[in-house]
Amino acid sequence: MNQHVMPKLNRRAFVIGTAAAGAGLAIGLDIPFGGPTVVRAADGSPEVNVWVVIRPDNTTVIRIARSEMGQGTLTGLAQLVAEELECDWSKVVTEYPTPGQSVARKRAWGDFSTGGSRGIRSSQEYVRKGGATARVMLIQAAANEWKVPASECTATNSVITHTPSGKTTTYGKVVEAAAKLEPPADVKLKDPKDWKIAGKGLKRLDTVDKTTGAMIYGADVKLPGMLNAAIKDCPVFGGKLKSFDESKITGMKGVKKVVQVGDSAVAVVADTWWHAKTALDALPIVWDEGENAKVSSESIAKWLAEGLDNSQPAYIGNQNGDAKAAIASAVKKVEAVYNYPYQNHVTMEPMNATALYTPDKCEVWCGTQNGEAAFAATMEAAGLPAEKCEVHKLILGGGFGRRGMTDYVRQAVLIAKQMPGTPVKLLWSREEDMAQGKFHPVTQCKLTGAFDANNNLTALHVRLSGQSILFTVRPAALVNGMDTVAFQGMSPSGDAAIGYSVPNLLVEHSMRNPHVPPGFWRGVNVNQNAIYLECFMDELAHSVGQDPVEFRRKLMSKHPKHLAVLNAVAEKIGWGKPAPQGVYRGIAQVMGYGSYVAGAAEISVSEGSKIKVHRIVASTDPGYVVNPAQVERQIAGSFVYGLSALFYGGCTVKDGKMEQTNFDTYNSMRIAEMPKVECVMVPSGGFWGGVGEPTIGVAAPAVLNAYFAATGKRIRSVPLKDQNITFA
Amino acid sequence: MANLTINGKTINVDVEDDTPLLWAIRENVGLTGTKYGCGIALCGACTVHVDGVAMRSCGMTVSEAAGKQITTIEGLASNGALHKVQQAWVANDVPQCGYCQSGMIMAVAALLKEKPKPTDEDINEAITNICRCGTFQQVREAIHAAASA
């Protein structure tokens, strides 16, 4: 298996300007003499275009710019290219272009960022065109050789046929000629209903190496002469490194060097990581913790609670009618306050990166969800221009948003810079990973609903208070100060639109940003927003004695796609029909990442607080399904991630630091706790939604609503462990 | 200094006696299929077989492992053929990110040796490895598939 080889382009002086690094730059790129436009892979095989390399034996190398972190994007994107290319799927291999190569070729592979469930939906069109363009060129090359019109030729399974004469040839035989042709200006893409490779639940391309131990993750990188580093950053976010007493660990076995990293961290570099970590644990370190050491979960909660008051300023994310007035004059009103804590991603593979620095070149090997951001971080930390930097992407041992950040890349480069010529692998301990997360933001939410005399919902006021991710991570994306992402699942339109029509609606956000660094986290704000809205919908329905599904349906007539997935799960779980003895149901729906999802759970509760989840049904409409087997896995996995956060998650702050240190204090679901997830896919076409994240939104509210059905107790606070509610 | 017998080969590793077996395997022997996930024997990513029993190698020292038969994920296949658990994993397309799967496969291989036809309850009790991607459904199906292979 050799599916993840980095393409090595032969290089020759060739000046290209680029905007990606913010300035024009010169870079070497080989343009061999065989043809003025042919670029060759390391083994000499020609590129038909940047997405497709074909070897003489018909092996088709498909380039994948997005990152594979388990979500199956690598396979899905390859299916889309292969579908249009009409190549032999059994001979497809994939490889990652490097960010450095992409920059050198005017960002030939486009965006590398793999987050927001965008891996497929944001690149499907241009990668399909890449496949289709290559097919047209290969057919044209065969037609030229046969001196027949290309219109008389067809291609399938890497074989080109001239229909009138029955002559055939293969992609491998005509690729040299095809690579020299001008690409067609425009190509027509297939109608998805004609797909043969895409749309099918084909096996992943990366499985075998993941079952034999052969897959190399960032943590497994080995380079000649490599040393290993363990690091501690100031546990109080925003604090600094004051001093460390190197003399206490001098002479400890394997220790090579102790280095300061930036102004807040210290690392021990040793022959092995175990030696580095052992010495680091023995190193006396003094921190300048600063003002943030006074912050606690309690002080954050108090500050957020103040934001729930209408007198405080807030950004308005969605509004129609006059909700405040309608609530003031309502016959009946219902109010509830919810909260959702910080969460850590806890990828199974802790953060790591390997760097090799010399004054002439800086190379990094790492798992990253954003190769170009890792490349930019490398340039900045190394202080070297783009043409002297490179990032080699590896398969990720989990991402969930965490590896879209580049803090660990920067650290690795800053360490390596202090040991020029020696490759250094930086690996975080699990404890460092828990302490230095980029946390799912903390929020609270006050919801108020108003009814008229006929029990019709006349107004809904959702007041969010809490942290913005964009404020810290991407301030340029704020809209007049407002974080539009904070309203996921409750937006007026777009890819995270609310599924209800209420005559008077107000959704607002009092932005309060504690010192804890936030980050995108699988499902991001859909997690808590769906709990808030979907549990409150349940509360509203029960307050007027209506069935929760019927209550929702009345508000969803103008949202047919939201309604369709809700109806699909309701039907599949048997809503309205009796559940087994002692089993209770809950349901939820939300839109996020361009997809419509709904989920329902059947649970039983023993001793008032021990939950057994018997059954989960989930429905999704992502527009198109590229690989149904992988979509099913993403849906099931979303429940594991979402319910782990609901039951066991929650990161708390004491003295400015995170209190949780490992799986003993931040647990994760096991196989015994997880039932089968029954998926109902209802792709309605005409749009491309994401798959990796949206379903997580319905996991928690479906179970919480079922818990209410079972016990009459409404849970408005996460995690459940804090209320002594556990898995049975 | 310890003599470790890993995948049938005896290797002298120059490490302190209290070095966790995991790090000796990864750094001194150079077999990186066994993963570090927590270091406190909770997640199971580092599971290997010690005298045929699934053990979390981060919680065992090299001196405790010396003289015993250690099998890592790299040594599970025999005579060039994948172990039936690995075959079931491939057939059922189990791994997502895959990082926990070496440990998961080792835990399952040990379970099947003890209980060739495990029930769902047996699986629930024996397989306590953490998988953050949430592959449990495929893991369960693949265990049953391997058991009937």
UniProtKB/TrEMBL annotation, chain A:
GO molecular function, one term: oxidoreductase activity
Domain Aldehyde oxidase/xanthine dehydrogenase a/b hammerhead, first and last residues per copy: 212-291
Pfam family of the protein (one): MoCoBD_2
Top-level taxon in the UniProt lineage: Bacteria
SUPFAM superfamilies according to UniProt: Molybdenum cofactor-binding domain
Stored InterPro entries: Ald_Oxase/Xan_DH_a/b (IPR000674), AldOxase/xan_DH_MoCoBD1 (IPR008274), AldOxase/xan_DH_MoCoBD2 (IPR046867), AldOxase/xan_DH_Mopterin-bd_sf (IPR037165), N-heterocyclic_Hydroxylase (IPR052516), OxRdtase_Mopterin-bd_su_IorB (IPR012368), TAT_signal (IPR006311)
PROSITE patterns given in the database record: TAT
Protein name per the record: Aldehyde dehydrogenase
Organism: Bradyrhizobium valentinum
TrEMBL record, chain B:
Alphabetically ordered keywords of this record: 2Fe-2S, Iron, Iron-sulfur, Metal-binding, Oxidoreductase
Listed Pfam families: Fer2, Fer2_2
Keyword Oxidoreductase: yes
GO molecular function: 2 iron, 2 sulfur cluster binding; metal ion binding; oxidoreductase activity
PROSITE patterns: 2FE2S_FER_1, 2FE2S_FER_2
Transcription found in the keyword field: no
Domain 2Fe-2S ferredoxin-type: start-end pairs: 1-76
InterPro entries: 2Fe-2S-bd, 2Fe-2S-bd_dom_sf, 2Fe-2S_ferredoxin-like_sf, 2Fe-2S_ferredoxin-type, 2Fe2S_fd_BS, Beta-grasp_dom_sf, Diverse_Oxidoreductases
Descriptive protein name: (2Fe-2S)-binding protein
